[in-house]
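Researcher: If convenient, please comment on what follows.
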Amino acid sequence: MPESHAPNTVSHFAINAQNSERAIAFYEAVFGWKFAAWGPPGFYTTQVGDLHGAVQLQQDQPFPTVIGNFEVSIAVEDVDRVVDLIVQHGGSVTLPKVTIPNICDLARVKDCEGNTFTVARYL
């Protein structure tokens, strides 16, 4: 597993946007971040220090996005095991485990305080 995807570390963040180009202009102007188109329409990647990030267009399918929050992914060795632990300790699942082919298995969850994040096992 690459160092940036070491288990139990923040591995990725995504800024969900209704208008990707407007969001990119904002983050370029405010923080000097640079973005590159990648993958589906409205999806752009960035590198912030050692952290991989993205601006992604709000969508309902196949992986619904949440507007109004940064999306953070935590790399794990076993999505099912970590989801079970999250639920056992008062959290909940907002998106059951899915696979993005050749990228990762992921699940979206809430902690015991209602904060949403993603756990991902990178392939």
Q: What stands out?
A: The chain has a mean pLDDT of 85. Strands lie at 9-17, 36-37, 43-48, 51-57, 70-75, 92-100, 104-110, 116-122. The radius of gyration is 14 Å.
